[in-house]
Amino acid sequence: MSYDLAGNFNVARPLGAASLAKPALTCPITASIRYVEAIGARVVVPSAGPPCFLDEDLFPINMINGDELSIFPDQTEFIARLTRHGNNNAVMNIPGTAISVSPTDVRVQHCVSDEAVQRPFVHKREYLLEYQADWAEWLHDAKASWVVNNTNLVSELQAWWEPLLAMAPSLRASIGGNCLVKTEGENILIDFPNGKISTYNDEPIKFRMEIGRPLLEGVVRQKAVDWSNSLFLSCRFTAWRDGSYNEYLYNFFKSLSVERMRRAEQEVVRRNGISEKVSNEIELGGYVVQRYCPHRKADLSEFGVIEGDHVVCTLHGWKFQLSDGACLNADDHKLSVRKRTN
Ligand code: FES
What we know:
By secondary structure, this protein is of the alpha+beta class. Helix content is about 35%, strand content about 20%.
């Protein structure tokens, strides 16, 4: 099994893979360990991560000592946690490592010395600083390309978002308050209750974001439909909220097109129990599957896909075995699934 810290895998399956019972797990590492156990992986190959933050602004997000406020541990941490779980099947690897897996054998060949394989992790700060120096010019040029045109953001967002807000009264009600977006020279109010965008004028707010003007103008210029991917993953913003996490606000920023907003609104309507009566089962790729995801009840007719031997709910990526509905993310969240018979 190869693993990246975003939760993607390639799997070397054993003969007769077994499922093991463990409590529900949520963070990427613990969820990954859960997958390893669920399929009884003979080989686990942590790969494709973590990201290295080379820009000075973001360098502190690198997890170097382990006590940083960071969600990006590296493969040594994953292997250590796997070992603590009693599993010693992980293979340390770097780009260029060759791993041969046969029914009887696992062979690992590095193209550099063992010391060189370990160096990025054992001397991580030094390694990252060298890496940063290599990319300094590129980073400088990339940041120089972030332009500010002094676009009138309020009027741009009015034209783009107000029609979307009008489509989503239930989503707006579930967000339940105003959001202030602050940027250099412009404070923008997203008035969710009334579905309006305006210049902020000291209205009460429930959420606040501060985003650098070049980046904000960039996503507005691109009409980026998913600000979660296009902006928030950059970690270049700050946020505040009054009260607990509101997933509807997050869904709003992921749904900035007509099609996406339609789905987001339907999902809220369904969750609020005011949708018309629909069947509790759907058909998915030759299988009859319960309509609502056991995780947070996403409608699998919208969010479900078949991937190999699994049903995947694309809302949060939970996986369920087609053979028996067992959930790879949590024991007590089985999905009802059967092969269609006619
Ligand atoms: S609702 Fe979260 S994975 Fe389905």
